[in-house]
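Example 3.2
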Amino acid sequence: MKLSNKRLLEMQLDPTVQYTCVMTNVITRRPVKLINYQVLEQVQQLAMWFINEYELPIQIFSWRQQLVFLVKQTVNTQHFAVAVQAFIAEKIPMDYQFLVGYSNEQAEISSLASIFKEALEALRSVEQDPELKVHKYQPKYVQELISLIPNDEVVAFRQKNIETTTYFYKSG
């Protein structure tokens, strides 16, 4: 057994299991956007209590004042995300909001970067619209991205590129 796999198992992280990534953030409605350290500590303690109370196979760590959960594939990630968000939001001061974003995909420990990015992107989406509170990462497909471009800009883009391409072929 590789030394890294042995160390992961000691930390209760199975290198062969698939995980979903859940990221959280605390934001404030106050004009001053700094988050009180005591609130962050309270959130972390509540999250750890929640995981321990329900004996969930979830690892938790902090990254840039945000909590990151690695959720084993045996746990319903959506249910966990919604439940932990409601639990913590109810217990923190009213001028703070607790937001959650989570990955669409699952990955092994050796490939966490992709699901970490997905969870971070989902969290950024919910930060743009805090009323969502919990958001799952949704991959963007080319057709969906094109549909986001205003019609007048699409027409101008087509005309410019078609005219350029037509001119290129006629003069070539």
